[in-house]
Automatic annotation (TrEMBL):
Protein name: DUF2252 domain-containing protein
Record organism: Pedobacter ginsengiterrae
Cross-referenced InterPro entries: DUF2252
Length: 405
């Protein structure tokens, strides 16, 4: 099976109309393609014989430059941390590192940032990651401990309010607040499904201990977000407080699939109840503080992750850091420290490596020398896949699947 055929097969259970938007997004550049084809990356990695062994720990699985961000935790404070756990799994800890440093090479080439800077950032990431492992101490970043652009993100998140979010996502219709279908990220849900979804959330509010108290469902839309997850079932709910006037919440409900890493790591995983529970369990283990209202639900025999929609959820835009070496250096350093910290935070759980094992691994030198060469090779394979995908969209089997190409 060709890699284009694998992309088609992997996405066969996505909404066809939204899948067209995913393919359009993946055409944007090599980095956007990389974000949408995690499964292909691990196929290439599984064939890389030079990849050094590493301890088995918890990883988010799809770590790249835009899967860090600012968010409000369940303690109402804001943090900068890893923020996407759809692919999370117990696997060799270097899988997380190689996925990230490969993303540096791909993103910098896509954004026309000098290759020398890319290598400098890769070497910095490896150094800061290993140094943090050696320390054995997990670090978190909040407005008091962060610097540079991350500090700016977190201060902006602190100052943001739900009123700002509601103004962006809703409007008043016949005296009632509803979700805005003029928002390009919102799509109407058909009448019957809308009724079923509202009843589902009503039951979830009544029965789930992690759900908000004293709220009722007012509206629901289909929601677009991300790249890799485009085409999955994803809904946004507007909830209104029963007790407090003009108090609202927005809840995101995202379909959970199997991790695309599973075929490439054969050791038995813990027996999670379902994929949604796998995702939130690992997220809670790896993040310093979890996102607000993080929970699960089951709708029509499908698993979903539930969480509060964030007033501000910034990710780093490296295009604007192209000529800002100081901020770029600080961000990459932070990302490396947070990657190691997430792994240290989740040691010794369900058979993952102990802290002592990770500290000893951090002191080893051989893997640090080999990893950049492997990442360069993997990045080259990604760009080859991207060019084949471009051709398939313009002249091949995906031509009729793409709108506006």
């Amino acid at each position: 099976m060709s890699n284009v055929e694998e992309i088609i097969a992997f996405n066969k259970n996505r909404f066809p109309e939204v899948l067209k938007l995913k393919y359009q997004a993946m055409l944007e550049n090599g980095f956007r393609f990389y974000r949408g084809t995690c499964h292909l990356f691990y196929k290439h990695l599984s064939q890389e014989k030079a990849m050094p062994a590493s301890p088995v720990g918890w990883i988010c699985g799809d770590l790249h430059l835009e899967n860090f961000g600012s968010y409000r935790g369940n303690n109402k404070m804001v943090y900068f941390d890893l923020n996407d756990f759809d692919e999370a799994i117990k696997a060799p800890v270097l899988w997380e590192v190689i996925r990230l440093i490969t993303s540096i090479f791909i993103a910098f080439q896509s954004f026309e940032i000098e290759s020398e800077q890319a290598m400098n950032m890769v070497l910095l990431f490896i150094k800061s990651y290993s140094t943090t492992l050696c320390s054995g101490k997990a670090v978190d970043l909040d407005p008091r401990t962060s610097k540079g652009i991350v500090c700016d993100f977190l201060k902006r998140a602190e100052q943001s309010s739900y009123d700002d979010l509601l103004k962006k996502r809703t409007y008043e219709k016949k005296g009632k607040l509803v979700l805005d279908l003029q928002d390009e990220r919102h799509f109407e849900v058909n009448k019957d499904l809308k009724k079923e979804l509202k009843q589902h959330i009503t039951t979830w509010l009544e029965e789930n201990d992690e759900s908000p108290y004293n709220y009722k469902v007012k509206d629901v839309v289909y929601r677009l977000a991300g790249t890799g997850s485009l085409g999955q079932k994803r809904y946004l709910f507007l909830l209104k407080s029963i007790n407090t006037k003009d108090s609202y919440l927005l809840i995101d409900m995202k379909q959970a699939f199997d991790s695309s890493l599973t075929p490439y790591f054969k050791k038995v995983q813990p027996a999670f109840e379902d994929n949604a529970n796998r995702i939130i369990t690992i997220q809670k283990r790896m993040q310093h503080v979890s996102a607000s209202l993080l929970s699960t639900s089951r709708f029509k025999n499908e698993d979903y992750v539930m969480q509060e929609l964030q007033p501000v959820k910034d990710t780093i835009d490296f295009k604007i850091l192209k000529n800002d070496y100081r901020n770029m250096y600080q961000v990459i350093d932070d990302m490396a420290i947070l990657t190691a910290s997430a792994q240290l935070r989740s040691t010794g759980m369900d058979g993952s490596a102990t802290k002592d094992e990770l500290m000893a691994f951090g002191r080893q030198e051989k893997w640090k020398l080999i990893l950049p060469e492997i990442a360069i090779k993997l990045a080259s394979k990604v760009f080859t896949d991207y060019h084949h995908f471009e051709d398939a969209c313009r002249n091949g089997p995906l031509k009729d699947s793409i709108l506006g190409v």
